[in-house]
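CHAIN AND CONFORMATION:

***
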Amino acid sequence: MGLYQRWRRLRLAGLQACALHTGPGSTPPRWLVERLGLFEELWAAHVKRLKSMAQKEHRTIQITLPGGQKVEAVAWNTTPYQLAKQISSTLADTAVAAQVNGEPYDLERPLETDSDLRFLTFDSTEGKAVFWHSSTHVLGAAAEQLLGAVLCRGPSTECGFYHDFFLGKERTLRGSELPVLERICQELTAAAQPFRRLEVSQDQLRQLFKDNPFKLRLIEEKVRGLTATVYGCGMLVDLCRGPHLRHTGQIGGLKLLTNSSSVWRSPGAPETVQRVAGISFPTAEELKAWEEWREEAELRDHRRIGKEQELFFFHKLSPGSCFFLPRGTRVYNALVTFIRAEYTRRGFSEVKTPTLFSTKLWEVSGHWEHYQEDMFALQPPGPRRDNPTSHPTDTLALKPMNCPAHCLMFTHRPRSWRELPLRLADFGVLHRAETSGSLGGLTRLRCFQQDDAHIFCAPDQLEAEIRGCLDFLRSVYAVLGFSFRLALSTRPSGFLGEPYLWDQAEQVLQRALEEFGEPWDLSPGDGAFYGPKIDVHLRDALGRPHQCGTIQLDFQLPLRFDLQYKGPLWLSPFQVVVIPVGPEQEAYAREAQQGLRAAGLVGDLDTDCTLTLSRRVRRAQLANYNFQFVVGQREQSKKTVNIRTRDNRRLGERDLTEAVQRLLELQSSRVPDAEEIF
């Protein structure tokens, strides 16, 4: 059976042992050799199948290039890289990947059918993502070979890449090991090892990664189809959607920057993993230019400035939390004063809400299901010893955002349409359980405050409020000297609610963006789980991107918290309820109800004579009926109704036919104050 024979498995129960080794000259772990052997077996079968498909499906296909030019290719044979070479040698050398019919595609993967083809280079955002994703695979391969690391995940970022890997319960990566790890990365890039894409079944996936519990967890959580893709590069085999560079030799300059600890979240106890971050470029000259730029950036680093000017500092005894010194507090207060004045000018009311809530609140809002791992939870003291029969208290959690608390504030009493839009602003303290490796000065903290506001509005007020928020952003950033770019982030895979509601919400945001007149991008799948949003991206003095402000449209929380307001007559689902004084008036009450319905109005009937008249009237007012038609013996004899409003205004006795006609006039004119002008 060769390399892939079933050797004695390395037991990783509970991740207690990983057979780690140090030194590039050491013999590779058996699991690494066994995994590579299985990959090579599967690769050989793949090459054979591909050759068979090329013979069986041999036909000419049409490839459309940017600009509309069409070229011919051979199905299951011609690759994007071959077409790039036909266009120009420069394009072939600089292309990092392709897009085929809008989908990411490897340059060495044969084309299968008529396609629109676009080439990606490092100059584009998509090209950088591919380049840095391939670089993190190089880092993973080096970590396996040098340290015997068990790989977790390795994504690209906006400014490079990082890889998380596990070295054992008691092992961490020392700073002195980073240069050695970097040297092995450089050796791997110099070797120009090809990236090989392979599609495998779920059973084959589990066999390839049987000794890596992190990958097995990802397979269980992420792989939904019958097959998935893995990539081989040298001795590395990793679960990945791709695409990747043709070979590691396209990475001309690579530098590892930092090492830190991070936390791998799992259903069991979280595991501490090692995170190494880096940067790479197509040429060594570009890396050198970046290093010079980084030196300048370090001089302007806000953490350095904060220390030198005695504005703020951080302390290990409160990680991820800032200590503002007197000078820093002055700057902070000046910013709060500025934003507070803007809030006042724009009709916002400042509120204060608690910091600690029962997790039942977050269960109602949906955050406990989707955000629990990023929250600080605590268990209050249990039942007192002198009262063992008392019930245990709820689990509590520090609030990571203000929205559920503002929903409680909205719903603590009945609300009228006259109060809308209700704009609430909050500078309260928030806490989020960020991993230690992700903390970064004032840009990523565990304890922070922000200018956070929520607007409760009716559907017909929505577009105007979004336009107001966009104007708010532009006004504030203009004062602070920031330029910005907007992005519409649409529904993610795990969204809450009905698709048609998401479609409507996204259309509202898109119309507002188009009317706003500033450039914007589409970010499919980047919305929050509860609604789409407009993200605001800033660049600092050195051109570094930061995702900063956001306008989020949340139509789930009003449903989850049953937020209601007393709407105008023409929008109300509770327009009129007819209430007979006693059983003798039920027949006339039904006649009045039928007259309302025949006219196209919403008319209900309350014949529950087990309650007093005053209690039935009060019940109707609490249910937000715009009007109550009370009918007794007098009204029955005169064909009239005695009218009250939901605000308990008594409008007196009116002719039934005239009252119905007046309601129709108020409904057709869509007046907001029908009860007052009846």
